[in-house]
């Protein structure tokens, strides 16, 4: 098993933390901002120093390629370097820097691979400056229309197209990531599971499917003092009872189901008035589409009338579970176990570029623990020990895949 250089990786992480560093040791590196452009230039320089060829496509995605012994479709590794406002030093950028460290190790140990290795930096994953998130992987995979994406405007009314053309990182469409042997994205977990279970590595099998409903309860608005309880159509207590009942049903579906009522509004929302309407959202995520359809069935079977109130539900949006490629996931797991690191298979509850790329390239992800499960915060942290373990798993998964694939 090959090992990466932990000190070199730590220095890389520290170096890139300077691009957009905040007062509290976090990072604000919005997509295509001056800070992002400086970080991109540094990445390009470091890659060119080790004889990688750097190209950009028409969404500003960066690709740095180390040639292989054969001219085969590359094994692609990486993530994104943009951040949210006052984000952390690990989200996204760690996937790019562990990829760079893996290539450093390949060069240093003179490992000869049949496949080219491409480090990717996807533009505007966070969607923090230009909505939506996963913008460029969405365009590459055909999920989003490019024309609509590049018209997206930031708070200062600058379009993505303008920011990209001024950045110097706009390339031709022909450079887009097309055929590849595999894509592996290392990312921080952004949740508490690995840390709680004292694991170093999450072998990510896919991204959870989800469904989101908006449920409205309509009653009758009236004076809070003069309307006897028996003469009310009160949507708030009706909604409260429904929510309590839903919680019982949801708990009974599957212990891995996660569900959230994240938004609730009362109208007119005045303390002396019985509301006329209460509207809330119900969002649920699970890997098994059957469990998600059980949630949908529960919502469909809600009564249309309750306590004199009428009830209406609308499906706002949903996402199918994305299952990663079995062979690539197996390679990640084999690398983890051969290195003797404590890992476990898991699904991602959050979205990542890999979920879109997986639609046309065999993909998988590697998670490393997030201290306290924190992310999108300045104090987001992953120990350097866990970072290098992740890099080791990434490197060895690439080596395993490269050997397996060339024999096929
Ligand atoms: Zn991220």
From TrEMBL:
GO terms, molecular function: hydrolase activity, acting on carbon-nitrogen (but not peptide) bonds, in linear amidines; metal ion binding
Source domain of life: Bacteria
InterPro entries: Amidase_Cbmase, Bact_exopeptidase_dim_dom, Peptidase_M20
Cofactor binding note: Binds 2 Zn(2+) ions per subunit.
Organism: Peribacillus deserti
Amino-acid positions noted as binding Zn(2+) 2 in the UniProt annotation, renumbered to this chain: 91, 126, 376
NCBIfam families the record matches: hydantase (TIGR01879), PRK09290.1-5 (NF006771)
Record field: transmembrane: none
Any Pfam family the entry gives: Peptidase_M20
Residues the record lists as binding Zn(2+) 1: 80, 91, 187
UniProt keyword list: Hydrolase, Metal-binding, Zinc
Record's protein name: Zn-dependent hydrolase
Family label: Belongs to the peptidase M20 family.
Organism lineage: Bacteria, Bacillati, Bacillota, Bacilli, Bacillales
Cofactor(s) the record lists: Zn(2+)
